[in-house]
Write a structure and sequence with these properties.
By secondary structure, the chain is of the alpha/beta class. The chain has 14 helices and 12 strands. It has a 6-stranded parallel β-sheet, with helices on both faces. The protein has a 6-stranded mixed β-sheet with strand order 7-6-8-9-10-12, with helices on both faces. Helix 1 packs across helix 3, helix 9 runs parallel beside helix 10 and helix 11 crosses helix 12. The chain is elongated, with a radius of gyration of 25 Å. The termini are far apart.
Length: 353
């Protein structure tokens, strides 16, 4: 394919001449091909920088068989993606790692089942080299849609049962983090510890609920209330718990947004935190924690780092380096103690409201 261009824009021939190599060698270097000795690679790259040469994308695709783009698929509607800081941090980590690999991010989201056909057409059209998918739901057809595209994929979060076990994933230790959160509340002397869980069709919520039950084997079902990983759902769930069990003195909330809503309800009801009710969240989202009052005790997970790990696993699949199927990764969590459940925490005799 000819790399000649018009005007004063430098050509591949000019790069080859400046580097003192053949056009074929220059083409392999600038388009990501293999088989060129390191000293020649350095000469060509120096010539590219000096001349300000921009490679032809079509030529590069022919050499590398890559499009230089990765689909990032979030199985949530637009309003969730742009209102939940979890997605912002995950996409930031993905974007930064893709940039380091000279690849572009193509963001796709799911407003409803009708979007599956659109995504299937796009993935099957050869526009991207692979896909990263997260926030999947157990009854979602999206995993099958991605599998049908026959492109490498890495999943964020533990996949639901029935998903192809060969697909690598990156997740945090949701169950272990939840256990640590609940043990902390028990250590504060709390006896009626409630849990506001996430959606029952997402494995992160399931694992955090399991962690709660690991510690409180005989927890009263009245101390359990489901939310939707949104602030408003956390506020509603907290109100329901207070109406149902006015003796609740601790609550583990499955994410920080819901915990923020729960704190708002407690404040409106005149319930003191942590004197009357100690609150622990999950995620450690700075944009949420910084505005809670009191400051939220929560379980930290490295969301941005998990996004970077997803890209690294995908690149291993694309490059064919290491095992054919990279192993999945479970990252550690840690409890961050703040004012909503300090250690030790003050206790009140009775509620003021």
């Amino acid at each position: 394919m000819s790399e000649q261009t018009t005007g004063s824009r430098p050509t591949l021939e000019a790069v080859a001449a400046r580097a003192g190599v053949s056009r074929a060698t220059a083409s392999r270097v600038v388009n990501g091909g293999a088989g060129v000795r390191a000293p020649l690679v350095e000469k060509v790259r120096r010539a590219v920088d000096e001349l300000g040469y921009v490679p032809n994308h079509a030529a590069r695709t022919l050499v590398t068989r890559r499009n230089g783009a990765v689909a990032v698929i979030i199985a949530e509607p637009e309003f969730r993606i742009f209102s939940d800081p979890f997605f912002e941090q995950q996409v930031r980590g993905i974007s930064r790692e893709l940039t380091a690999h000279d690849s572009q991010l193509v963001l796709l989201w799911v407003e409803g089942p009708g979007d599956h056909e659109r995504i299937a057409r796009y993935l099957g059209g050869g526009h991207v080299d692979g896909a990263l998918a997260f926030s999947l739901h157990s009854d979602d057809a999206l995993p099958a849609v991605i599998e049908g595209a026959r492109i490498p994929v890495v999943v964020g979060g533990r996949p639901a049962p029935g998903t192809d076990p060969a697909v690598p994933f990156v997740d945090c230790d949701n169950r272990g983090g939840a256990r640590e959160a609940v043990r902390h509340l028990v250590g504060l002397g709390r006896r009626s510890i409630a849990h506001i869980s996430g959606p029952a069709d997402q494995t992160s919520a399931i694992d955090r609920l399991r962690g709660y039950r690991d510690v409180l084997l005989d927890a009263d079902p009245e101390l359990l209330c489901a939310g939707a990983f949104t602030e408003e759902s956390g506020a509603r769930a907290m109100a329901e718990l207070l109406d149902r069990r006015p003796d609740v003195d601790g609550v583990f909330v499955a994410n920080d947004l819901m915990a923020s809503g729960a704190l708002r309800t407690l404040r409106e009801r005149g319930v003191r935190v942590p004197e009357d009710v100690a609150v622990v969240g999950f995620d450690d989202m700075a944009s949420v924690v910084d505005r809670t009052s009191p400051a939220l005790t929560t379980v930290h997970q490295d969301v941005e780092g998990m996004g970077r790990l997803m890209v690294k696993l995908l690149m291993r699949l694309l490059d064919g380096t290491g095992p054919e199927i990279p192993g999945s990764v479970i990252t550690p969590t840690s409890l961050v103690r703040r004012a909503s459940a300090p250690f030790p925490a003050p206790r009140g005799v009775s509620r003021t409201g």
